[in-house]
Structures are given as C-alpha cells and as structure tokens.
Amino acid sequence: MAHNPALLHHFATEQQQRNSASLGMWVFLATEVMFFGGLFCAYLVYRHWYFGDFAAASKSIDATLGATNTAVLICSSLTVVLAVWAAQTARKSLLVAMLAVTMLFGLAFLGIKGKEYYDKFEEHHVPGASFSFDNVEIPGHPGEYAVPRHAEIFFSLYFIMTGLHAVHMIIGLGIFSWLLYTAWRGRFTPEWHTPVEIGGLYWHFVDIIWIYLFPLLYLIDRHP
Amino acid sequence: MAKAITQPVERENYLNKEYGVWSWLLTTDHKRIALLYLISITFFFFIGGFFALLIRLELLTPAGDLVQADTYNKLFTMHGMVMVFFFLIPSIPAVLGNFLVPMMIGAKDLAFPRINLLSWYLYIIGGMLMLHCMLTGGVDTGWTFYTPFSTAFSNTKVVEAGIAIFIAGFSSILTGLNFVVTIHRMRAPGMTWSRLPLFIWAHYATSIIQLLGTPVIAVTILLVAAERVLHLGIFDPKLGGDPLLFQHLFWFYSHPAVYIMILPSMGVVTEIIACFSRKRIFGYSFVAFSSIAIAVFGFLVWAHHMFVAGISVYSALVFSFLSYAVALPSAIKVFNWTATLYKGSIHYDAPMLYAFGFLGLFTVGGLTGLFLAALGIDVHVTDTYFVVAHFHYIMVGGAVMGYLGGMHFWWPKISGRLYPEGWARLAALIVFIGFNLTFFPQFVLGYMGMPRRYYDYSHMPEFQVLNVLSTAGATVLGVGYLLPMIYFLWSMRYGKPASDNPWNAAGLEWKTASPPPTFNFDVEPVVTWEAYNYDELDAPHHQEVPVGR
Amino acid sequence: MSAHSEHAKSPLKMYFAVWAALLAGTYITYKVAFIDLGPFNPVVALGIASIKATLVALFFMHVYHAGERLTKLVVISALFFLMLLLGLTMADYATRLWS
Questions:
Q1: Mean pLDDT score across all residues of chain B
Q2: ipTM, two decimals
C-alpha cells in the first residue's frame, strides 16, 4: 500500500507525523513567549519606576498608526485561518489568494511601522547620540517635565520590542512566501497541508504579541 | 601488544552503514549526531580544563605572579563560559540523550532528525565563535556578565562571547524541543509513561527547563549587546537603568540551568543503580515526579544568587524559603536511590563506582546549597570559595561523575566494544580522590573568608596550604579524566566485542545489537513489561527473547 | 489537523465573528484610552488585550477544538512561567522601598 511521499521514514503513520509537527510548533511558540517575556519584564520594571516619563514618551508615538497596525494584523490572522480552511477543503485558488493577501497585510504592517520609525527618527527620539526629549510635559502633571534619560529607556524598549517583533514578521513573510509557492504548485491537499497549519500558528502568535505591545507601548496614559 | 580484534562477520550497524566525512557531517541519524557531539564537547571540556589548570597554577602562591589581574579575570571567565555553555549543558542530553532517548522508547529516531543535526551545527558555530573570541582577546566579565561592567566598562569581546552563547542556546532549545516531542509522540506500542525509564523522565524535565529558560537569557544577551553597542542605558545606573534587572533576567535562566546540568546525570545514575543492584528503582513515581518538580521549582529560586546585591529583604526571604523547597525533590531522589541499594545485589563495575561517587558528592553539594539558602550564612560566604566548592561538588562531583558513569555504562552499546574494566575502576578512583582533594579544601577556604575570583591572596598568606592541596588535587583529577579518553579510544580497536546486553540490563536499548543498526530495531518493539524488571531478567529460567530483532 | 472533520458545519461564521470581535476590541481599547478611568485604564486595556489573545488562541489557533489536552497544557505552562518571571521579579521591585 503506497503511502504519501511526504511521510518521513522515522514516523509510523501520517497522523503521528502531523501531530509531531503541530506539537513541535506549539512548544516552539512557548519558547517565543519566554523570549519576548524577558523584554516585557524589563518594560514592566521601568514602567513601574518611571511611570510619568514613560507616559510622556508613550504619548509621543502615534496611537492611530498603532491601532491601524493592530487592525491590519487582525485581518491577516483572518486570512490565515481562511487559508487553512481552503487547504482543508481543497480550494486551491482561495488558498493561494489568502496566503498572498496575508503577506500583503504583513507588508502593510511593516510599511506602517517604517513610517513610525521614520517619524521617531525625525523627532530625535531614537536612543543614542542624537536623542533629545526636552520640555515634554508628563501627562496629568502640568509643569512637570519628563526626565529625558528615562524617556530614552522607554524608546530603547520601544525599538527593541517592536524591532524584534518586526524581525519575527519578516521571518513570517519568508515562511509564507514558501507556503505561497508550494500552494501555487498544487502540493497541498486536504490530507496533507501541515505546513500551512503550523505556519499559521506562527503567524497568529506574532499577532498575539502585537496585541499586547499595542496597549503597553501606545496607550500608557492618553487621557486628557 | 593486543592485536586488533575484529568481528569476523560484521553486522550492518550505524557505524559501518556508510563511510566518509559527508556521511557523518550530513547525517540525520541520532546516534551519529550523538558521536559528533561527543567529540565536540570533549574538545571544549579540555579547553575549559586548560583554563582551570592555569587558575590553579596561579593560586599556588599568594602573590599574583603567574598572570596579570586582567588575564586572570579572563581565565575564570572563559573557564566558566566554556564549561557551562559548551560542556555541561549539552553533555549528557546531547551525547547520551541523543543516542538513547529514541532507543529507550522504541523509536527509530527523534521526531525531528534534521533539526537535531541543525542543533549540532548551531553548537559548533557558537563554539567556533567562542574559540575565536578567546583567541583574539577573550572576555573578562565573569561567566555571569554582570552589568554595568559588561555593558559599559569592559574592554574585552563581550558581544562576541554573548553571541556565541546565544547561538549555543538556540542549539539547546532545539534539543529540548526535539526530546519533548519525541517523548510525547514516538513511544513504541505499550510504552506507557509509567513504563518509561527514569532516564527519559529526567531528560523530559531537563527539556522543559531548556525550552522555557534559555529564551530569557537569549533576549538578555541581546539587550547586553544592544546596550554595549548603542549605549542605551537599560542596565546602567548612570543612565537610569538598574543593574539588578540584568541579574534578575540572567539568573532566571542560569539558576534553572544548573538543573539542566544535573537532572540528566540523575537520570543516568538511576539507570546505573538499578542495574548494578539488580533491583527495581524504589519509588518509581516519586523519582519521576521529583524530576518534574525539580524542573518547576528550579524556576522559583533564582534570586538566591542576589541576596547581597540589593534586592528587597522581603523578596530575599521568599526566595530563601523557596530555595529550601527546591532541595526536597532532590532529597527524595537520594532517599530512593539509597533504598534501591538496600538489599540489592551490588556489583562494583566502573559505572557503579561513578554512581556511588555521585551519591556522596551530590549529597555534599546539595547540603551545602542549603547552607547558602540561609540568608544569614549566605551573607558571610557569598562570593567566597565556599560557593565555588558548593557548585563544583554538584557540577563535577555530580554531573561529570554521572556523565562518566553513563559513558562507561553505555559504551558497549555505542561502540560495540568493552572498555578495560580494571583501568576504568582505577580511573574512577583517581577521579574521586582528585576531585575531593581539589574541592574540599575550597569549602574550608571559603568559610575562612577567601574571596572567589581573586588572583592575589597575599594579604591572607595562611590560605596557601589549602590552595596548594587544591591544585595538587586538580592535577590528579586531570589524570583521572585523561585515562578514560585513552582507554575508550584504545577499546575501539582492541577492546573485546560486546554482546547485545553485556550488563544484562533492563531497557529497550539493550534488546538490540551493540552497536545498533541505523534504525535501532529491525522490528518495532511492543512493550508488555514494567521498567526495571530485574527480577525477571535475573530469574533462573529467564530466556532473553530479543525484541525488535 | 483533521479534527475539523468532526464539525459538520463550516467554521467560517465563527472565524468572521471572532474577527469582528477582535476589531471591535481594538476600537474599544483605542477609544477608552482617551477616557480617564484612573487606575483602571491599564486594567481595561490589558483586559481587552487578553480577551483578544484568548480568542485568537482558542479559535484561530484551534486550541478550543484541540484533540488533546496537551496543547492546552503547553499554552498554560508558557503563561505560567511567564507570570513567574514577571511576578517574582516585580515582587522585588515592588517591595524595595518597604524597608
């Protein structure tokens, strides 16, 4: 009885292979939670210490762009589940379309991020020699000004956390371009489309990280 | 001179299946990858040992007369980094774990063989980078990289060393991932969780730590690199940062890391004690669950490395209490091993000698850990040789003894040859004596107040005698380590061929050929017996029916 | 996973419902940030974020329909250890000034 050529020799059944791939991706995502977790820890500590300065810094980044990017990623997660569904139900053109649209959303996300980074560069909010954050009032404390050094810590964490997230997005785009090509070549079937599923898991995870980054970085203290 | 004993008709096995460098460098066979790791970690062990030798030579005299202070800083730093990240953490999992995990559960390979090979390449790349770093100036921050020295003041290659460790960490994560998925998904029919050898439980627990802890030090290294290169200020008090944040993030991994180093060794010792007492392990479930408990509790205690660093007294109290709690599962294991020995039929082959050494030395190391967990005592002995002795008792007296015991126990399976038992027992004895001579004086030195990481103790010349004893011990220990290298290599050509199961041990790995065929078992085994069925194996009418042949 | 063959009806409605909920949550988070809720601003923002993350995990990542409990165990373990890192570290920072 011929078996699927995708079955690797050390597995007994395709089910075992599929379950192993899935568990492997979930375990990997657990490691990613801890990887970002270290940064969230640093963020928490300094937000606790320098709340006012962080609030002032947070107010200076564009919350509308941040919210838009959140919506972009949410839409991309939708297209990912639709891609998986398309693979499950042998809808090749829909699969290819959804994978492509997901990538477009990803590129849009990176584009908006690029604009944000550019704005920060223009405003001298990039940590380093040319950083300046003088005479910025702490929200809710008129007359009190943020300590530039503490605001610089916010921006360091902002760039590192969103930067690391962007790196993961770029890797995701790499994975999805391989998925797109493989789907276009017709290699995915309802019986075997494991890479689409586990690629999807990775993408959703990157979305979840952003879901937390958005309120933490953009919305510390926005109310008048 | 013994002439080479070759087997007249050699069965096809994983060693002779294919020849040529590429068949090794591109292998996905977990057993070949285990041997690739064996060669690499042995290499790094001797590099780390070389640094240790220089340290001990310097400390022969109170004055700092062998090397300069900066050089000495580099010596203990690189000794630590190489031994921790490039020897201890991979050692048992990457060599014995890789070789045995699939075999013990009745599988053909790990779940992800290509990722296994990738793990080795990542280890090698990290190792080469570390080697390059050491050869072009080294690092002097201590293996602990404390900020702001590492980020703002050290003039050495901190970023390069950090990246080397980052890459090696990725290797460690992927190994852990492979083991977890393999143990969940690839067990043979009938191999239930409660029939697994405790070696497997130990590696499962180790893998949990590798998976959940290593990413934190990975991101911390990135932050240190970013701070050093971009002068960010996350850990620099002058710029508003907190050096203690670095220590929290660093130790969140590095404390559980010590359990990565000891748990596999405990797994090895369990297998050896059962085999050489010819008994089931006493309290299987207790030992299994205490492995998991060590993994979990190990994440709760990290700030006991920071008692005098400036953390709040209240959190210090909490961490002290939790540090006592983490000793409990280890103690449970020691009791279970002892109970296994009781009324067992004890055999004193070399693996068992290492296991006995482990029992005593790990107990001493563990108990002195409790000394350190007590806040009042820790204030006096922290950053002294007491701490150095404590962790070497566990890392060397515990982990390395377990590693050597395991290498001897499974050597017939790995190589198809027997090592010379007489020499092996002698080497075990030399290691035990050398080890105690090296490190017991350090407990006394530390208690008397000799600080660690000092190259010059001329203001305390009364410490010289103990230091000389320690250095003498180190040379004896070195001899003890060299002997197995020599006779293992010797045995590959001149050793007696081994049967499938020279120890008459329990475990699926012993039910296939020595050395095993590439896919481990000719026929997938079906397990219908409990683990450690020594009563059956030793029964007078027992017929060893080869399973999976 | 072929587990979805157990579900007779198409999951599309559920996907679009979750998607709408996620967008709504984002909008609410954004708007509420501009209202003064005192100490509850971060609570609301992170609370909604957690609901969104849970929805993505349960329905987009199929944890809800996962064939075995192991997937849920992996997720919960990751979150547990993350909380350990954040919680025990903050325990130090929060109590430093007590003495």
A1: 95
A2: 0.94
